[in-house]
Structure formats: C-alpha cells, structure tokens
Amino acid sequence: MTHIPHRLEIESADIGYGDKIILHDITFSVPHGARVAVVGPNGAGKSTLFKALVGLLPLQKGRILIHGLSLGHHKDCVAYVPQREEVDWRFPVTVSDVVMMGRFDYQGWFKGASKNDKQIVEKSLAQMSMADFAARSISDLSGGQQQRVFLARALAQEPHILLMDEPFTGVDAPTQEATLKLLDDLRETQVTAMISTHDLNLAASRFDFMLLLNHRLIAFGKPSEVMKQENLAKAFGPQLTILPDGTAVVDDCCPPEENV
Amino acid sequence: MNWLLQPLTYEFMQRGLLASVIVGVLCAIMGTYVVLRGMAFLGDAMAHAILPGIAIAYLLNGNLMVGALVAALVIALSIGFFSRQGAIKEDTAIGILFAAALALGVALISTIQTYAVDLSHILFGNVLGVSSTDLWLTAGLGLLILLTVILLYKPFLIISFDPVLAATLRLPAELLRNLMLVLLALTVVVSLQTVGVGLAAAMLVTPAATAYLLTRRLAPMMIVSAILGALSSIIGLYVSYYLNIVSGSAIVLIATTFFLLAFLWKRLQSSS
Hints:
The complex is a heterodimer. By secondary structure, chain A is of the alpha/beta class. In chain A, 31% of the residues lie in helices and 26% in strands.
C-alpha cells in the first residue's frame, strides 16, 4: 500500500522566538481540502502556528511537511491572510496592485503581468465582490473591504493551503459571509484552509476539523469530538461559560494582548 | 531668456546643473522607499556617517567621492550587522554609529589648516566645484542605482508593503534589505557634491513626501518625486547663482516650498 501524503503534517514541533518556546510539541495532520478552525484563547499561539507554517518563524524542533516534503519545497503552496492591523494601509498601492502581488511567483522577479495574470486578478476580485474597487487606493477601503482584498490576493496565489488569521474579528456581516462562502468554494477546489477564530460555535458548525490550542495541542479532530467540556475547560479555563442550552461562550471582552 | 542662458556660458555651471539634476532625480526616487519604509533617520545618519571617509580622502589628496563611497558601504553594512544581532534596537545602533562617525570626521577635518571653508563645502555641498571626473562618477553611479531600482521594482515593492507575503514567497528579504541600504548609501554619496552631508536627508525625504501627497501608486509617486527633485535642483541652482547663496540650501528650500504648496493644496481639497 502506498502512503498518500496529507496536505499538511506537523510532527512534534516546538515553535517560538529564540529561547522562548510558545508552542510545545505540536503534532497533527490535515488531509486534502479540509477546513480547519484553529481555536484557543488569546496568546495561545494561533498566530505563532501560522507564522511557522509560512516559514516566518523557524522550528526549534520537529518538522512541517507539505505533501510529504519539508517547508520551502513548495514555495507557491501556502497563502497567508494576515490580521488587518499588520498592514500599512496608507501605502500607495491600488486594490488590483495588491492582488497582483499574489501572482509574483508565476511571473518571477523581472517579468510583468501576463494576460493570464490580469484575468486571474479580475476573477479573484470578482469572486470577493470587489471588482468595482480595482482601481481604488487601499486607504479608501472599509475594514471589511480591506479583508476581502487580501482574500482575493490569496485566491490569486492559487494556493494549496490557505491560512487566515482571525478573519472574523471586527468585520461586517457581508465580509463574514463572503469569507465563509469562500471556504465552501475552496473545498470544491481541494484547497486546505486553516482559520483561527474566537468563535467556538462558528468553528463547530462551519468547519470539518477543529484544532484546540493553548501552548500545547489540546484536541484535534471533528468538531463533535473536540467540543467536549473537558477539552474546552483545558483550553480556556475560567474564561469559558457553558450556557444552559449547551452553547459554549468564551468571555473575552477584555482580552489580554496577544503576546506575539 | 538671457537670464536663463547666461549662467550656462560657464562650463562649471553646466557641470553643476547636470550633477544637480542627476542627484535630484536619484534622491527623489530612493526617497520614495525612505519615506514609505520610515528610513528618514537612517538616511540622515548615513549622510553624516560618511564624513570620516571624505576627510581621509581629503588628507590623502584622493578623490572625495571615492572616500565617501567606501565609508558609506562600511556604514551600511555595519548598521545591518549591529541590528541583526538583536542586542540593541536598530535606531539605537544607527544613533551610536552616526554620532561616532560624525565625531571622527570632524576630528579629522579639524586637523586641516583651512578647515572652515572645506567643512562648509562638505557639509553644504559645492556644486560649482564639480569636476568632470566627479560628473562621470555621479552619472555612472546614478545609472547603476536607477537600473537596480527599476529591475527590482516588484521585490522591493513587496518587501516594503508586506514582509509577510515576502516571506511566504520565500523572497531573500534580508539580502534585499541590505541591497536597499547599499543603494541608499550610494545615493547619499552622489548627493554630497550638490547638497552636502547636512542636507542630503532633506533631498531624500522632501520630494518623496511631496509626491506621496499627490499620488496614489508607487510608480507615479516615483515619477512625480523625480520631477520635483529635478525641478528643485534646477530652480535652486539658479536662485543660488543670482542671490549668491549656498547651492545646497537653495535647492532644499525650493524642495520645501514645493512640499508646503502640495500640503496646502491637499488641505484645501479635503476641506472643500
């Protein structure tokens, strides 16, 4: 029997900055085209995990495999949608400039945009209902629109794995809907998606897998297996409240600073 | 028309004008990255830090630009070295290096007999003293910088706008950042003759900041910045010729006037 590699495998990885290890001994694997919600309290290391997956943070131990090969072999493979606060929105670029950056790997360093690149940029913007904004400056956009521009760029990258850091935090309802719809579309094209979120109930209802994180991997599996009170209590501690109808609510009205 | 052509009958004015325009354009184009990446302090520091190189070249009767070039490259790479270690913050490293280099430069220059005059030329430029060797060196370096900026437009844009994307694309960000430092150092060296070490930072920042107010994309920002830089240099040189003031000051004051006009225009536009 031949071993079909998962899209993404992480084996006993320690991740951190220098001496400071933030994530200890993480092991899990995600199959083709799965949608994974990464859930955990603030500062649990969700962003840290993503940064390691794109190669921004080196592994202190263990390894990350994509299609059975270590990071760096698939340079066009991972697209990352950062938190909106990490971007300088006053930079002089237009919406289509930003999305075109996603085509860099297909163009190389010195060549300009091909007809195909332009079509893909247009299509990606249309898919996120941002086609009318193509020529606009990114500083003119609302928060939700900014996010959709970055989602469009991730689409233009034609990734195998898409990582989104807190895409549901502080965005309007249309953007939230557009993001969820995108997840469904991605499933059809076999793109693996990992999304970090605070929203336990959203994670449980709209994703194939949940990954519960608090400096260690607490649980990974189908939402029904992960959403057990003991797991949630381990991850969130006193922040967690279970309502009488069984809904889990995380109290993060005054979340501490993400220590990343 | 005569008042425009009359100064150009002097060969040193022709050379001065050519050098000023090249410098104006180069500073303005590198300046867009200085403004967008928040490197204004670095540009200023770099300008002051090349002083010892110039002083040593002067004492050895060598070419001042060559001395500046060597000093600039040393400084650019050592800033990268000190801040990469992470022992101290980058702006602290820049502050220490630049003050030390400036002090060394002044110490060396103070051993020169006629140092008051020479120092003022080094600090504020001596555009009318541009030799034809200097002009060739300026043009050569200018072409090199311009070609690099054009060739590496896309990777420079990506590492400046979105370092995270640069990492996912596996761009050699560290190498590109160091290359940008070297280009900045070369630009500062080229600008020595026209505006001097004291005012090089102004030519890096002011036209680019003006262009930032007037444009919405990087390439147009570079072009507008270059035009403003060239215009400031030309107008400044004429002002310097007719009012008999130091050329570097005149050029920088014209560039500042453009900035103030753009700022006011922007204000009026947004309030109406």
